[in-house]
Amino acid sequence: MTEILVQRQVLSLPEIAQIWQDIEHESTSFFLSWSWIGTWLLTLSQPLHVFVFYRTGNLQNPIGICIAGEISKSGFGIGYKQLYLNQSGKQPLDQAWIEYNDILANEQDIQACRNAWINHCFIHDKIDCVIINTSKIEARDWSDNGLFNTEQEIVQGFAKHLTPEFADLHSLLGSFSKNRRAQIKRALRYIESEYGNIVITQHTGIDALEHLHPLGELHKSRWGESDFGSGFDNPKFVEFHQQLLLLQHPKQDIHLLEFTAGKINLGYLYNFKSNGKVYFYLSGVNYVSADNKCKVGLVMHSLAMQYYARLNCNSYDFLGGESPYKTSLSDHQYRFYSTHLSRNSMTYQIKRSLHKVQTLLTKPA
Fold it and tell me: How far apart are CA 242 and CA 223, in angstroms?
C-alpha cells in the first residue's frame, strides 16, 4: 500500500479551494464537492483543522484533503477530545447535514488516506475519539491495524434507478407496487379534478432564493414541533442554503422544483443534480386535504422522477433515513455508517461518562 504523509495545515479559504478543486473528480459525491464544502466553510466563523495528504517523497502534489472540527469536553476536570470529519461538532453549524462523508482523494489513494488519517489523529494529535457521520465506509475500513475501538450505527439509504422509459409516467408508475401505483393514480386524478393540471417549475439561483422562504414555512409547519425540528428555524442552516443557491456551481445543478395545480401551490422539492444523479435533500409539502386524499408527497416525487428521467438522469437518491414513502418508491437500498473510533475504549468511556454525569448535575432544574 502507498505510504501516505498527513499534514495539518493552516490555509486560507482560497488555498483550501485550490487544493480541493484540484483533487475533486467526476465521481465525487455532491456532498464532497467544493460546491457543498466551500459553501459550508463560508458560513463558519470558527477555524477548523485542514488535513492535507501526500505520497511520501512528493510534497508538491497533494493527493487528498479533509476538514475536521475538534471539540473538547470534560467531566470533573478530566478532559477528552473528539474530532469530526467534515463537520464542526456543533449541531447548529452542522445541521446542513453532510452525507456520503469521506476524505476527498482519488480512488487509488483513498483507502491509504483513510488509514493514515486515523493513525495521525490518534498517534500524532492525541485525539480520544474520531467521529465520521453518514459515510458509506464501514468502521473496519477506517483503520488497518485493529488497535482502535469502534462503534457503528447504521442508517438506511434509499434510491430509485431511472431509465429513459420513465420519461413516460405510465412506465414509471408501472415500476411501483400495485397498491402504490393505484394510490398515486387516484391522487393525480383527485388533484387535477379539484385544482387543475399539475405544473412543475424549476427554480435556480436568485429565482430559487425567492422560493426558499415559502419552502421553509411549509417545512416548519411539518417538522417544527417534531423531535427532529426544522433546520429553517436555525439561522446558520438558512444562511448555508442561501449561499448555496446563489453561488455558481459549474459541475452541479441545485433545483427547487415547485409544484402547482391551478392556483394552488402543492409544495417544493429541494434537489441536487450531479453526475447524472439526483439527490433529494428536503421538501415542503402543502397537505391540501385533511384526509390526505391528495398524497401530495408521493405525487411530487413521482413527477420529479419523470422530470429527471427526461433529463437523462440515472438515479433518484432519497439519501439516509427510513420512511414508508422511500421504501415504496425506491428499488434498492444501501447503508450509511456513523462511526466512532476511540484509542482506548475503557479510558474514553470513563471520560465520556464523567462528562455526562457532570452535565446532568449542572443542568438547571
Answer: 20
Note whether 34 and 141 are same-domain residues: yes
Same structural domain for residues 150 and 107?
A: yes
Q: What is the pTM of this model?
A: 0.90
Domain assignment present for 259: yes
Conformation bin of residue 9: beta by default, left when phi > 0, alpha when psi is -120 to 50: beta
> Which has the closest alpha carbon to 70: 21, 119, 8?
8
- Phi, psi (rounded to 5 degrees) for 61: -125, 100
Maximum alpha-carbon separation in the chain:
70
Domain co-membership, 290 together with 180: yes
pLDDT by residue, tens only, the chain of 365 residues = 569 999 999 999 999 999 999 999 888 899 999 999 999 999 998 889 999 999 998 999 999 999 999 998 665 556 789 999 999 999 999 999 999 999 999 999 999 999 999 999 999 999 999 999 999 999 999 988 777 888 999 999 999 999 999 999 999 999 999 999 999 999 999 999 999 999 999 999 999 999 999 999 999 998 877 777 899 999 999 999 999 999 877 677 899 999 999 999 999 999 999 999 999 999 999 988 766 778 999 999 999 999 999 999 999 999 999 999 999 999 999 999 999 999 765 666 665 555 454 445 545 44
Within 10 angstroms of residue 223's Cβ, the number of other Cβ atoms is 17
Are 198 and 140 in the same domain? no
Report the number of distinct structural domains present in the chain: 2
Q: Is 325 inside any structural domain?
A: no
| Cα–Cα distance measured from residue 189 to residue 179, given in angstroms and rounded to the nearest whole number | 16
Tell whether 151 and 263 lie within a shared domain: no
Quote the domain boundaries for residue 52.
Answer: 4-156+336-362
User: 119 and 253 in one domain?
Assistant: no
Strand locations in the chain (E): 4-9, 49-55, 64-75, 78-85, 104-105, 129-135, 149-161, 198-203, 252-261, 264-274, 277-285, 315-320, 332-342
